[in-house]
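Sequence in, structure out. Go.
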Amino acid sequence: MRRTLIIALVLAALSVAAANGSPVRRAKTHRSASSSTTSHHSRSSRKKSRFAAAGNARRATVHEAHYAVLPEPEPVLEPERETSRRSRHKRRAEAEPVSLRLSQPIPPPLRGSMESLVRQNDKTEADNLERIEDEDDLADRIARKMLVAVPTSAALTINEKLPASHRYCRPWTAQFLSDLAHIHGSEFHRPLEVSSAVRTVEYQKQLMETNGNAAPAEGDIASPHLTGATIDIAKQGMSREEMGWMRAWLLPLQQAGKIDVEEEFKQACFHITVYKSYMPLLPPEPARASAPPKAPAKTRNRKPTQPTEPSAPSASGETASQGF
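Output:
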């Protein structure tokens, strides 16, 4: 009986111990797992925060470096290249004033006016230039060298439609054309074209019937072509730079009173009247004194000739050897 009681007490103690110990261990295990999970999540969150902050900082640095405006470095030129560059600029600066660069503005057109036409008539009259009436008058002046041929060359041509008898001008106008064509040819390597030169009153009247832009043949505003001092230079085919060069070259001569320019647009030409003052006058030749007669040349083995009697004077008082 006593033995049975002891066994029952032991079994009861074991059951109580088993019932009390298992939950405690399970609860302890649950708490430790939960705490470890929580600490793991907190550590992961802190790592993610640090990584995110570091990533944001790196992205900000890359963004700033990508969009930063850095000053452009100055080009480093070799000494020889720098010297050649300076010499080119110096040559350009020392070029002729009529040479136009593309960066420079193109001079405005040299437009004509009624005052200019009146001035051309007044100045040609002051130069004692008469208007050529007809073809016979023109041929006579050409024969007397009062008019000379337009100086054609590789730098100056004449419109093929211009009659052969009208390809003449005054000597100073021819000199002006030679100078202009030479300088223009060296600058642009192409010829200028003369589209009109001398005209007659008869021809101008016919021209007025077909060309409403033609000047009158008579009066105070008659065409200066009638004197032979005026020529037209065609603008057809000229580039914009070439047009500006022509204006820049002609304007100083007009301001100096050497020429008058009217830039026409219907016929597209530079109408230019050249005055005598363009070509400086030559000094008068000094009067030649009558030279003493030369002694006869000495010759070898020449026999002396007998003196002859002087010839009798003619009725007019001149000797036969004089041809005045």
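Check: The CA atoms of residues 260 and 273 lie 5 Å apart. The chain has a mean pLDDT of 74.
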